[in-house]
Amino acid sequence: MCRSFDMDLASPLPAAANAVSPSRRPSARPLFVFVLFLLGLAVEPPVASHVRAARLLLAFQDAGAATAGGVREEILTFAAPRGEVRARVFVPEGAVRPPAMVLIHGVHRKGIDEPRLLRFSRALSRAGVTILTPEVVEFSDYVVEARSIDTVGAAMVALALRTGHERVGVMGMSFGGGIALLTAADPRYRDVASVVVAVGAHHDMARVSRFFAGQPATGPDGATSPVQPHAYGGMVLLHARVAEFFPAEDVPAARESIKLWLWEERDRARAEAKKLSPSSQARVETLFAGDLEGVRPTLLHAIDGHAAEMAAVSPRDKLADIQADVFLLHGAGDTVIPATETAWLAREVPPARLRQAIVSPAIVHVELEGTPTTAQKWQLVHFMGDVLLAADRRGR
User: Fold this and answer.
1) Please, which contacts does 393-396 make with residues 24 or more away whose CB atoms are closer than 8 Å?
2) Within 10 A of 95 (CB to CB), how many other CB atoms are there?
């Protein structure tokens, strides 16, 4: 079992890794309003999709859009190999047989109820797409596990049946992006996937885990990224393998204290840590301070020892027969999953299926960073416009 975190929409990011917070929201409205004005003069499908993309990004940045109308929502369940799965569906009001897409939440304890995921789902639906968000219980428990592929695949089949489409899209952020690619490439679900969108996704879980442990991120060209890992990643690896770092009698309290720290409940985490032996408590406090040096060799050993489990949740060597149109987007300064991972993905996706692969300085993991330039904003509008256009064309 490979545990990991998804500071993403994927949570869509945790605090720093979970979508755009109001306090850091860039000033994008003037550009997008101008784009809407210009593009609104034409009605060709490519232009219309870019208008919808501009509106989508505006809505996602607008916290007030969380409760705006235009979307019909419903809680439902569907059957999956692990049992009944809770999900939420978003249907654009007034749309005639709109395309449909499964949106995978990130590694976050709130799952499909995470507020930023809700906002993004509503924004996507207002852009003219029926959205289904399935509860991936492994992600809610800070785990990236192969059985999540079955949940996402079952969600795609359920959404296709519900909408009457032969194929539907799938989108995932951070580690959810890797699972989206794996599901779209899986022979059981390959013919159901029309479009797959992976934002800040991983290609090789072991390589990303070694990045967390302090090894440099290297791309397929051999170049090394200067980006340093976020300490959160190492903490998630520790949470997954607590028994390898603490004596048996301290494992339950150590696991709980680290989990509470990941949840950003710092006072409760420290209170739980007081149940530990003095040496274990000292180690936990060192970890809370972001110092992984003392556990780095054990981390690397644990990664090597669980290579097969990590390979099972890695798109590496599994994308040759993917049939969906593939869109890859990554933040240049991503400290959770380095952008070199998207370079590896872009090399492996068949050229006939790869529609766009963008590494943007306007994004950090899966949230907008600072104030993007006009060119950077337009690049994001163009990317999402092409996604919507592909969903329209291939998902009916």
Assistant:
1) 393/45, 394/167, 394/169, 394/194, 394/195, 394/324, 394/325, 395/99, 395/100, 395/101, 395/165, 395/167, 395/168, 395/169, 395/194, 395/195, 396/97, 396/99, 396/165
2) 16
In eight-state DSSP terms, residue 324 is: S
Query: pLDDT-based confidence at 34, cuts 50/70/90?
Result: very low
Pick the CATH number of 50-204+316-394 from 2.30.130.10, 3.40.50.1820, 3.50.30.60, 3.20.20.70: 3.40.50.1820
So where are the chain's domains? Answer: 50-204+316-394, 220-309
For residues 246-272, one letter each, b for 16 or more C-beta atoms within 10 angstroms of the residue's C-beta and e for the rest, the string is beeebbebbbbbbbbbbeeeeeebbeb
pTM assigned to the model: 0.84
The answer to whether 9 and 117 are in contact (CB under 8 A) is yes
pLDDT digits (tens, 9 = 90+) for 8-21: 443 333 333 333 33
- Rounded alpha-carbon distances, angstroms, from residue 201 to 282, 326, 334: 34, 12, 10
Place of tokens 């890695």: 314
How far apart are alpha carbons 261 and 267 in whole angstroms? Answer: 9
Bridge partners of 103, per DSSP, are 171
Give the pLDDT score at 235: 85
- pLDDT at 29 exceeding the cut of 50: no
